[in-house]
Amino acid sequence: MKLIEKSEEVVRLTGGWREEGRRIVLVPTMGWFHEGHLSLMRLARSLGTRTIVSLFVNPIQFGPREDLAAYPRDLDRDRRLAEQEGVDALFAPVAEEMFEPEFQTRVSLTRISLGLCGADRPGHFDGVATIVTKLFHLMTPHVAVFGEKDLQQLALIRRMVRDLNFQIEIVGHPIVREKDGLALSSRNSYLTAAERQTALCLSQAIGQARDTVRDSSNTTSVADLIAGAIAFINAHEGCQVDYVTIVDRWSLAPGTTINQDSVMALAVKINGRVRLIDNGLLL
Questions:
Q1: Cα 198 from Cα 192, distance rounded (Å)
Q2: Cβ 150 vs Cβ 272: under 8 Å
Q3: Which of 79, 106, 214, 267 has the highest CB neighbour count under 10 A?
Q4: For residue 218, what pLDDT is reported?
């Protein structure tokens, strides 16, 4: 596996692959790989003939009160894990390589970035859209793979690809969970043992809503499903609900009735320190 740190080098490498007729699949990440990331790499390998993973902790998607400095990093560890998955190249630039001092361009989506995580993290999705656009231009992949745990990010990238006519297929990978239901996240490493147990209430709240919807005698409204999930989460000590909502999985439009594309999405802070997100289809 090649380790690449310079933009011009990754352009040469992926350009050469295209000239050879290779089908390039990109997996954008911020590193600190866990089983969720590794599953994206395995899917990527099945979708093309060359797999490249980007590892970049993107400073412009972190707000002033967020955990950029504390975000976990271990390039040597991540390099070994990616190589074990058969990845062909790992692109791991430093911040100065991607954003020179005079950098002043932003890619912004006007509606889909609002609400959900966008309400609590102003500017976050502009940072995501900007870095993903740069990665797409540098590596010109045929396919890019993203996890479905980041529901809003995936919907935003799909919208951006359509709006800007990127000739790239976007593939979502289902959420990877621990056996007890906790969605895998790099931020899980911040949790104490007790907090980790408390964090199970996220997936449990979605599961309870799903059970209610599947009950053939159910007449519960969308508002009642949301209120029930909030009450369940609030009953767990140390949990602060950021949002609980039910939206369409593609457009993120708020749901008024439950259908096959209805997703419950939520964000919760554990003891005011660790913000976790989760989501799940209700049917």
A1: 10
A2: no
A3: 267
A4: 74
Task: Write down the pLDDT at residue 109.
Answer: 97
Backbone φ and ψ of 147, nearest 5°: -80, 145
Helices (H), the chain: 7-19, 35-47, 75-84, 95-98, 117-120, 124-139, 151-163, 193-198, 201-214, 222-234
Distance from C-alpha of 181 to C-alpha of 157, rounded to nearest angstrom: 26
Tracing tokens 């209805």 back to the chain, one arrives at: 262
Strands 239-248 and 262-270: antiparallel
Return averaged pLDDT per consecutive 10 residues of the chain, 283 residues in all: 98 98 98 96 98 97 87 95 98 97 96 93 95 98 98 98 98 96 93 97 98 85 96 97 97 94 97 96 96
pLDDT at 134: 98
Look up residue 270 and give its two tokens.
């554990």
Q: Residue 115: which H helix or E strand, with range?
A: none
Secondary-structure breakdown of the chain: helix, strand, coil percentages, each rounded to the nearest 5? 40, 20, 40
Catalytic residues: 37
The tokens describing 261, both together, are 């594309």
Distance (Å, whole) CA 34 – CA 78? 9
In this structure, are residues 112 and 137 in contact, taking their beta carbons and an 8 Å threshold?
A: no
Provide the pLDDT for residue 220.
86
Q: Does the predicted TM-score (pTM) go above 0.70?
A: yes
Q: How far apart are CA 11 and CA 137, in angstroms?
A: 9
CA distance 174 to 266: 16
What span, in angstroms and rounded, lies between the C-alpha atoms of 257 and 283?
Answer: 12
Element holding 200 (H helix, E strand):
none
Do residues 23 and 143 touch, judged by C-beta distance below 8 A? yes
